[in-house]
Design goal:
By secondary structure, the chain is an alpha/beta fold. Helix content is 45%, strand content 15%. The chain has nine helices and ten strands. The chain is globular, with a radius of gyration of 22 Å.
């Protein structure tokens, strides 16, 4: 490491020492870029996107948290290799990113967060404390002491049903309950379809953030037996504003006809207003009791 001449008694360093605090954090990156109908490949070690009209856009993947690949996209093996080295996640989603299909896990050189998550989940008492913190955040004022996870989940079911009814009354929307049948999106009413779309997009964002921070989406504290239990645990912290309120407020504006573009636009606006990516990291640490 070279040094510049001494000035005011202190050596000026030509190179700056890198610490964890100086490295880019998840909140410092662009949250995600959605791509559809084109090809991702390598050109001189950089990632370039070629859309269906032949336009070429070079992507600064080191500054991207995640690429959302929509319908009609192809990606080369070398492109995935470069994105992995840049800690840029990949998620495969439906059109307009409103349905989440799968995520490509980005390797991380630091497994401390993953190890801590596993140890907490494996200890029944510590795992229950994490679950209680999550419920406490969503339902402040509730008495959760000495409750089992089964009792907490029963309380949650009641509170969520009451929340749906409260929003239905506020926005004067007819509500017959939450209905979601996998693979039969079109069968739901407008409110349920907005809820499904917003939840799927929320899962995609949280999944990419969880991967980027070295946690596992597969080790949850409330949900279990599902593909992404930790993602579902964390998503519940934000659903009231990003999914539930959105669904009932937009139902009124859509006048009985589901509009996916309006849903996507309003969902993204709320994500930006909430500064979701800046919230996820500190929220995970708080929920896991990290000092």
């Amino acid at each position: 490491m070279s040094e510049l001449p001494v000035k005011d008694g202190a050596a000026q360093r030509l190179l700056i020492k890198i610490t964890r605090d100086t490295l880019p954090q998840v909140k410092d990156k662009y949250p995600f870029v959605y791509l559809e109908r084109g090809r991702l490949e390598i050109d001189d070690s950089s990632i370039k996107w070629i859309d269906c009209d032949g336009n070429v856009v070079r992507l600064p993947v080191a500054m991207l948290n995640c690429l959302l690949l929509g319908p009609g996209t192809t990606v080369t093996h070398e492109a995935v290799k470069v994105m992995s080295a840049s800690n840029c996640g990949l998620c495969w989603v439906g059109e307009d990113s409103l349905i989440f299909f799968a995520a490509g896990q980005t390797p991380t050189s630091d497994t401390r967060n993953f190890r801590r998550q596993m140890l907490l989940s494996a200890d029944p008492d510590k795992s229950l404390k994490v679950a209680a913190r999550m419920f406490k955040r969503r339902f402040p004022g509730e008495k959760l002491e000495n409750k089992t996870l089964h009792q907490l989940m029963g309380m949650e079911g009641l509170r969520v049903r009451q929340l749906y009814e409260k929003k239905a009354i506020k926005y004067k929307v007819g509500w017959k309950g939450r209905q979601f049948t996998p693979g039969k999106f079109e069968m739901g009413d407008v409110t349920n379809r907005i809820l499904t779309s917003a939840n799927a997009a929320l899962y995609g964002i949280i999944c990419s953030a969880v991967h980027s921070m070295g946690y596992s989406p597969h080790i949850g504290f409330i949900h279990s037996g599902s593909p992404l239990p930790f993602v579902y645990d964390m998503a519940d912290l934000y659903k009231e504003e990003l999914s539930i309120d959105l669904a009932f407020s937009l139902t009124v504006n859509m006048a009985g006809s589901y509009d996916r573009h309006k849903t996507a636009t309003e969902f993204r606006r709320r994500v930006i207003d909430m500064d979701l990516l800046a919230c996820i990291g500190p929220d995970i640490e708080e929920m896991l009791g990290k000092q």
